[in-house]
Amino acid sequence: MISVKNLTKRYVNVAAVDNISFEVEDGDIVGLLGPNGAGKTTTMRILTCFMPATEGTATVAGYDVFNDSISVRQKTGYLPENVPLYLDMRVKEYLLFRARLKKIPRKHRRKKMGDCLEMCGITDVQNQIIGTLSKGYKQRVGLADALIHDPEILILDEPTIGLDPNQIIQIRKVIKDLGKKHTILLSTHILPEVEMVCNKVIIINKGKIVAMDTPSNLMNQLKSGSNVVLEIRGDGKKIKDSISRVEGIRSVVWREKGDVNEFTVEAAEGKDLREDIFKCIVKDNYILREMKRKTITLEEIFHQITTRETEEIVNNA
Amino acid sequence: MRNVHSIFLREIRSYFFSPIAYIVISVFLVASGFFFAGNLQFWQEASLKGSLDSIQFFLLLLTPVITMRLLSEEAKSGTIETLMTSPVTDFDVVFGKFLAGLGLYMVMILPTWIFVLFLSIFGNPDFGPIFSSYIGLTLMGGLFVSIGIFVSSLTRNQIVASVIGLISLILLWVMGFLSTYGDNWYYECLRYIGTFDHWESFTKGIVDTRDVIYYLSFTALMLFITVRVVESRKWR
Ligand SMILES: Nc1ncnc2c1ncn2[C@@H]1O[C@H](COP(=O)(O)OP(=O)(O)O)[C@@H](O)[C@H]1O
Ligand SMILES: [Mg+2]
Predict the structure, then answer these.
(1) CA distance B116 to chain A (A)
(2) Which of A84, A103, A145 sits opposite B77 (nearest CB)?
(3) Residue B20 and residue B66 in contact, taking contact as beta carbons nearer than 8 Å
(4) What angle do CA A225, A227, A232 make, to 5 degrees?
């Protein structure tokens, strides 16, 4: 459905997107996840033919975004960040105008509009001036516009930004429903959103892809090397030293918690060191009160991946 | 053409749902009525010549107000992004908006036909120069609107767009005006570029192909450059 190869977009002096490649299969709901300034919007603008890439190619629904841009636009529905709308128009008028631009034959236009109003839950406000709608409703109008020509692909840039928690839940539900019929690429900097909505995640940071997998795989990948939290009675400093000597330990953080010590032990990737740690503690005759593996959320993966990147950059500099 | 039509309709609608259309139309009507009455009293003849010359000045002032929002508003509100990612070409957008601006301009000068009616009731005007004047007014409107839309493509600030548009139109007018002071080749150039001279002949009842070509080609050039400017967002 979407195929991106070695895409680079350079602004005057920054590479907003730096040599990224990825595929989106038919029926996927893919989340493009990254902090602000990661290059999500830039990627989406290239895919929707708003601007061309500096280098690399991208095809959407089988058409090249540069050479066949009108065909690509006909096949995609795009909800830009911050949902720009003509505030002086009525919802209905706006959607009919958009339907016309998107070449829906006159006799289908009203029906299509009715369906989209219904699907996005804005039938009640169809006669209202867009400027008087709340942010959540504007978002839905934008979504209805993206949907109106029944595109194969939906590209949604931060669809839940600026909404209140209830509206977020509603919009996510709408997106999930849409995922049954459309291929969706959405961007967000909110992690739980990806866990909830997407079946594939692309984590992007500073214009580069740093990870790409299903949300559960991403978590499994790092789970085995995840953190172990220990509660041990004894001389904290000594315990820390002996745990640190266990092979495969990346870091040990020691915190005094009343008369016991709490250690957070991070193992190297792909290693489960719980047994080694246990043996080490028993050997030195410390008293182990608790040992638990901390399950890593996507949030932490995200944090780890993005900060590790920064560390590497700092180290290389 | 279908896209041009859709964009044209939306723009026209947007003009009449905002105060802009009503303001320019009433200002123009009041000003032109005033000059019509004044000229009639002064010249005591059944023609539009004097009044149209004065009216030209108001067209110069008001057209930038018509055109200022055409592209700058889209850039400012970000709607340019939804517009340019729908299956339309940059030309469709620019041309549709140009026609809408020209449409409002035509609506604005429409009421001046009341004066013509007035003249034909109370006098015996020569219709030749009147018709040619309206051809001239239309062609000049096309040029003014195309300059306005070009300026509007350069900035996202409507006020800046109207001010720069106004300055450009005044320069264009002054250029032609200055050309009457001499006969050198550079006066000739000024004469050709400025609107003053070309407009003159229309008011005298002459529809000269060269003047028509001047207006049409200048307008086409401005629209061409505007499309390029709109496209240039891609290379920035
Ligand atoms: N028009 C532009 N000119 C120059 N730099 C830009 C422009 N648009 C975006 N950038 C830069 O490109 C980078 C990526 O931006 P963007 O794609 O908007 O990120 P995101 O959507 O992930 O927050 C940022 O560093 C941003 O400052
Ligand atoms: Mg963004």
Answers:
(1) 37
(2) A84
(3) yes
(4) 135
| Backbone phi and psi for residue B97, each to the nearest 5 degrees, phi listed first | -70, -40
Using CA atoms in the order A249, A302, A6, A311, what is the torsion angle rounded to 10 degrees? -50
A-chain CB neighbours of B79 within 8 Å are 84-86
Calpha distance A30→A155 (Å, rounded): 10
pLDDT score at A316? 47
Q: Which domains does chain A possess?
A: 2-221 (3.40.50.300), 224-294 (3.30.70.260)
Rg, chain A, Cα only: 25
- Tokens at residue A115, please? 């369906």
> Smallest CA–CA separation between B87 and chain A, in Å?
5
Q: What are the C-alpha distances in Å from A309 to residues A21, A38, A194, A215, B40? A: 18, 12, 21, 20, 80
User: pLDDT digit string (tens) for B62-91?
Assistant: 999 999 999 999 999 999 999 999 999 999
pTM beyond cutoff 0.80: yes
Beta-bridge partner residues of A154? A77, A184
Block residue for tokens 């007018």:
B173
> Within a 10 A sphere around the Cβ of B161, how many other Cβ atoms?
27
Mean pLDDT score, A35-52: 92
Interval B180-234: pLDDT, tens:
777 777 777 777 777 777 888 888 888 888 889 999 999 999 999 999 999 887 7
Place A242 in a pLDDT band, splitting at 50, 70 and 90.
Answer: confident
Domain boundaries, chain B: 2-234
ipTM over 0.85: yes
Across the strands, what pairs with A232? A261, A288
* Helical axes B19-43 vs B90-109, angle rounded to 10°: 40
**Which of B3, B14, B81 comes nearest A84 by C-beta?**
B81
Contact (CB<8Å) B234/A100: no
Q: How far apart are the CA of A138 and the centre of ligand 2, in A?
A: 18
Q: In chain A, helix, strand, coil percent, each to 5?
A: 40, 30, 30
B residues 4-43 lying closer than 8 A (beta carbon) to A: 6-7, 9-10, 13-14, 17-18
